[in-house]
């Protein structure tokens, strides 16, 4: 009877050791899977940051082309408060009437517009470009007055 009890205790100890060993291996496998997933996520993060750096556009880009009596204008710059308002005010001060415009503010501020010059205003591409550059260079999109 005493030997049966000892055998039972020994068997339980062995079972406990086997369970602990099995749980230990299982946890090691899960830990390795987490480490792999973590390293994959870090690689994705590095790639994302690399792409975001490549996407960064120059601070200010203004392209103006003469089209008939008006201008085709493209503006790309960093987002700022009231960017659209200040650019439209600059158009107004130059005597340009916006006929068509497309604006995007997803990553950067981007404006593409077709503006017609009033008949009493004679503007050239350089004047329009300089005026728009001055407008977007103002901190926080301050008013152009």
Structural account:
This protein is α+β, with helices and mostly antiparallel strands. Helix content is 54%, strand content 23%. The chain is rod-shaped, with a radius of gyration of 34 Å.
Give the key terms.
single chain; 145 residues; alpha+beta; 4-stranded antiparallel sheet; 3 helices; rod-shaped
Secondary structure topology:
Elements: H1 2-55, E1 60-67, E2 70-77, H2 83-94, E3 96-104, E4 109-117, H3 125-137
Antiparallel strand pairs: 1-2, 2-4, 3-4
Helix pairs in contact: 2-3
Beta-strand percentage range:
15-25%
Distance between the termini: 104 Å
- Helices and strands, in order, run as HEEHEEH
Q: How large, in whole angstroms, is the Cα Rg?
A: 34 Å
């Amino acid at each position: 009877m005493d030997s049966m009890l000892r055998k039972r205790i020994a068997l339980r100890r062995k079972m406990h050791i086997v369970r602990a060993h099995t749980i230990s291996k299982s946890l090691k496998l899960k830990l390795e899977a987490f480490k792999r997933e973590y390293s994959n996520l870090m690689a994705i993060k590095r790639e994302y940051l690399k792409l975001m750096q490549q996407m960064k556009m120059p601070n200010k880009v203004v392209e103006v082309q003469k089209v008939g009596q008006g201008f085709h204008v493209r503006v790309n710059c960093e987002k700022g408060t009231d960017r659209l308002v200040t650019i439209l005010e600059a158009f107004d001060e130059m005597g340009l009437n916006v006929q068509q415009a497309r604006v995007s503010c997803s990553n950067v501020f981007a404006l593409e517009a077709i503006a017609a010059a009033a008949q009493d205003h004679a503007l050239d591409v350089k004047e329009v470009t300089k005026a728009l550059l001055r407008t977007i260079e103002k901190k926080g999109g301050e008013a152009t007055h």
